[in-house]
Specification:
mainly alpha, 10 helices
């Protein structure tokens, strides 16, 4: 644990401090802009927890740390499940229960099996080929529009297609993250943009803080993973061969 805490760079510490301070300022000075309806205390508390935990989780992913999955389950998925059910975003709620929580547990176990040879706190990461990229995009779009159509028939469903596409790109991010592929950053970037649209439509403005913070970290994490892969081409080749049938 001591070596893990020491692994945080000055930039990473400043990044987290800035997010926490911005969130605190938003809560103190602009409470009326946190949610359209602030009468639900549980939703309000969950929004604050998720806002603070998301940047922490994203930073741990950029650091190639398996502990991001623990933070995700306890402080992001469970609070966001409450928010989604309250907002009528049923696709994301279903995906959270049936996909995100189980895949986080499996991902933690898989990442534990692939530590870097020189730095054990890091997990080895890799990348897809362009043909695989195309197939992934087509699968995401087919799933998103198909599920969006079905969810639109449910009573109380809101923003069905946007909800479903957000869930689809988020699931792709989760699967690619499970398999340690660098392309998970692309899927996550699009997911964040779609989430931002949902939060603006619903008036959940406090969540825009975490979206903005995670967009910054997405660029940072993508750069770190790309540099790692370039510096460890042999490890990437071994991992790709091991994943083939």
């Amino acid at each position: 644990m001591k070596s893990f805490l020491k692994s945080f760079t000055p930039y990473q510490i400043i990044y987290l401090a800035a997010v926490f301070l911005l969130t605190a300022a938003f809560i103190i000075f602009f409470p009326d802009y946190m949610l359209d309806d602030t009468s639900n205390t549980l939703v309000l508390v969950c929004s604050v927890i998720a806002t603070l935990a998301n940047p922490v989780c994203e930073l741990l992913i950029s650091k190639q740390s398996k502990w991001n999955f623990g933070v995700d389950v306890l402080f992001i998925e469970i609070p966001e499940l409450v928010i989604c059910l309250a907002m009528g975003w049923y696709t994301i709620a279903i995906v959270t229960m049936a996909f995100w929580i189980p895949i986080d547990i499996v991902s933690f176990l898989r990442w534990t099996r692939h530590p870097d040879e020189q730095e054990e706190e890091l997990t080895v990461v890799k990348r897809l080929g362009w043909k695989q990229d195309v197939l992934v995009v087509l699968a995401i779009l087919a799933f998103g529009f198909g599920v969006g159509y079905l969810i639109s028939m449910l009573p109380g469903a809101a923003d069905s297609y946007l909800d479903a596409l957000s869930a689809a790109f988020g699931m792709a991010n989760g699967i690619l993250l499970l398999l340690r592929y660098n392309e998970q950053w692309y899927a996550w970037f699009i997911t964040l943009v779609l989430y931002a649209a949902l939060y603006i439509i619903s008036g959940t403005y406090i969540m825009l803080i975490t979206v903005a913070a995670m967009l910054v970290n997405t660029c940072y994490g993508f750069g770190k993973w790309v540099l790692y892969i370039k510096r460890h081409p042999a490890e990437e080749s071994v991992q790709q061969e091991a994943s083939q049938p």
